[in-house]
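note to self — DONT lose this again. spent like an hour looking for the file last time. sequence + predicted structure for the chain T wanted, 339 res
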Amino acid sequence: MQVLFKVVRQNSDTAPRIQTYELEVDPGVTILDCLNQIKWEQDGTLAFRKNCRNTICGSCGMRINGRSALACKENVGSEVARLQEIAAHSPTAADAVPTITIAPMGNMPVIKDLVVDMKSFWDHLQAVDPFVSTGARQVPEREFLQTPEERERLNQVGNCILCGACYSECNAREVNPEFVGPHALAKAYRTIADSRDSQTEKRLEDYSQGTQGVWGCTRCYYCNVVCPMDVAPMDQIGKIKQAILDRQETPVTRPIRHRRVLIDLVKQGGWIDERRFGLKVVGDSFRDWKGLLSLGPLGLRMLARGKFPCRFEPSEGTTQIRALIESVQAVEDHSSADA
């Protein structure tokens, strides 16, 4: 089949430009095979990373038609089918030559063409100290044993190959350079879930600081969507948040109040009473005067535009909503007790 490849090309000191290559390829070949063909037969200056060619090393991460993926995993046929499904309502879609656009990953500066500088990626991973500490649990003269159940908790996050796809698409990282990223927090959960680690309390305290840790996640879910290994980074971030909330001695910071107050208000009324939400979260129930003062300008603008709710009407089905929340909490409590 005939396919056009539009590749975004640039050097670190130049503006991006698009270069088009035309290939005759089999639908079963991978995007990486096509890039190899371009480099070997048409343009030897094209730069991209690769290594294993078998979804193991994570080197060939790039944006393929707008989403981060591994070039060695995606094939031409499935990608063209996906594009045709998106363009199904276009009358000319069937006659057009399929076009696949390749761009470098996001949230990292470009070195050349599809090669990005991953220094921030590795620095943020290092920041969460993703290494198991066994200092307090040394067992002399024999290895540290785990039960099959303890080991099974590590399987999903252990599948991470550090390809950078989740980091590339992270909206929180795009607006907050201090946020360590979904890859780092997924690895962080691996240490928390590991029965051999002796630093759990300190880790939870560190991961709860400001918006560089778990509270910086905006829960956009895109890291789960693009992860080629089904690590589900956002789910792992949620588990760390729950572990922090379950600690009796946890200092009640604004992010923690946000989570707790949101659940409490939904249980009470089926949806959020915005008046109480601001006072309880930002104003810490009248204990944080700076927070209360910061609400003033917003409150005045809402009043001026008639958008301040004068009263709160509980939603229909509040009883059912409360029962669902309490059922989920009971299941989570039971799972935590078993763990």
